[in-house]
């Protein structure tokens, strides 16, 4: 893999750390800013909704700029947003700072995915995406537990100061190693790029991502109270357990990339089924420390095994003009799933059966995503029969 791809991974590490680190700080933020746990959980929803807005807006606004320039500008926004989080005097300002930080997220991963696939041979595209997303897994494996430990030892603000420093370092790595491509393809007219949103399979791919991934955040948003209030672990034990989740993400991310390289749509089906099974098993595993740790590790594997297959599915269906936009929108779709999951989890805790039932609710959401994937595959088969889709295409191979 080219070193430029590893530079993209460094940027992904910084952004992933700030997205996920709040899960290990919910109780500290709740206590310090005098808000409820579910209100603190909305900091995740606010970030995710900011990604959903920022992805299409910034992708369109920067479509005529060199991709390296775009990536550096986005990393600058990310760094300044985290600085604002560290300085936020109250809950409202922290929410606003989280939203500002999130604006860079979708476009960074969307443009970064396109850059990554252009750095390797066609048969390695899914693996290239997976390598870039390894930055997210590394963030969860290293950044989130370290951030949770910092928050426990020195207060939650120290975590955001650390993430600000990560942003500065990631900016430097991107500036040095990502090549500035000469003669980049001139963007298509805006009308042609927006036309990608009229493709039913692109829309189905986005819906599949939102609902398929939402189940992860029904549970993961509230992992700290789950482990402390249901499993019975101490607050200091949460960080080591998050290391297990991060290790699972690393395994699942690479596994998903390899499966998608072989058969993209089959990988979508298999990973969504596995995720639904793991989520459904939560109620039976979260009660004791050993089984809870096993569950957290399997959740990491199953959740990120879905990422490369679903991202590649959208990229394939959005080929041509509008691919950058569709790629960024799918990152936004992942984060809409995060927001939906965090909200549904909060409703389940406050107005439903409570923390114990989060796994069942999460599994149902993921199964809805699987149903959309089956619908999308049915449309593929119809298109093959009418000759609109080549029988030897990537979707057909699935």
From TrEMBL:
The keyword Glycoprotein does not apply. This is MFS transporter. It is found in: Cell membrane. CDD domains: MFS_NepI_like. It is a multi-pass membrane protein. The chain crosses the membrane at residues 38-58, 70-89, 95-121, 128-152, 158-181, 202-223, 238-256, 263-284, 290-308, 329-349, 355-375. One of its GO terms (molecular function) is transmembrane transporter activity. Its main location: membrane. One of its GO terms (cellular component) is plasma membrane. Residues 4-381 form the Major facilitator superfamily (MFS) profile domain. The keyword Transmembrane helix applies. Keywords: Cell membrane, Membrane, Transmembrane, Transmembrane helix.
């Amino acid at each position: 893999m080219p070193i430029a791809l590893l530079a993209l991974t460094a940027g992904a590490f910084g952004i992933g750390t700030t997205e996920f680190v709040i899960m290990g700080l919910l109780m500290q933020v709740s206590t310090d800013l005098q808000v409820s746990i579910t209100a603190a959980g909305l900091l995740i929803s606010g970030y995710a909704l900011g990604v959903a807005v920022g992805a299409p807006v910034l992708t369109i606004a920067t479509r005529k700029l060199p991709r390296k320039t775009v990536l550096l500008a986005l990393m600058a926004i990310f760094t300044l947003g985290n600085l604002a989080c560290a300085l936020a005097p109250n809950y409202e300002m922290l929410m606003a700072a989280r939203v500002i930080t999130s604006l860079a997220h979708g476009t960074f991963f969307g443009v970064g995915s396109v850059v990554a696939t252009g750095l390797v041979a066609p048969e390695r595209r899914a693996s290239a995406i997976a390598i870039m997303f390894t930055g997210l897994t590394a963030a969860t494996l290293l950044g989130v537990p370290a951030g949770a430990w910092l928050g426990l030892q020195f207060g939650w603000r120290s975590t955001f100061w650390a993430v600000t420093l990560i942003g500065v370092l990631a900016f430097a790595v991107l500036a040095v190693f990502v090549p500035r491509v000469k003669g980049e393809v001139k963007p298509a007219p805006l009308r042609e790029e927006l036309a990608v949103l009229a493709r039913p399979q692109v829309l189905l791919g986005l819906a599949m991502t939102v609902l398929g991934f939402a189940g992860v955040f029904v549970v993961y948003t509230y992992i700290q109270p789950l482990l402390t209030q249901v499993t019975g672990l101490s607050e200091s034990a949460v960080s080591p357990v998050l290391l297990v989740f991060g290790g699972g993400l690393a395994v699942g991310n690479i596994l998903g990339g390899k499966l998608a390289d072989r058969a993209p749509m089959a990988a979508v089906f298999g990973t969504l089924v596995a995720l639904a099974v793991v989520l459904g098993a939560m109620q039976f595993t979260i009660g004791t420390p050993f089984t809870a740790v096993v569950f957290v590790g399997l959740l990491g594997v199953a959740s990120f095994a879905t990422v490369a297959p679903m991202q590649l599915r959208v990229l394939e269906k959005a080929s041509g003009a509008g691919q950058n936009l569709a790629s960024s929108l799918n990152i936004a779709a992942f984060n809409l799933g995060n927001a939906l999951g965090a909200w549904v989890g909060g409703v389940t805790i406050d107005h439903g059966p409570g923390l114990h039932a989060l796994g069942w609710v999460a599994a149902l959401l993921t199964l809805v995503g699987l149903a959309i994937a089956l619908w999308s595959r049915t449309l593929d088969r119809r298109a093959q029969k009418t000759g609109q889709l080549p029988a030897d295409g990537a979707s057909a191979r699935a």
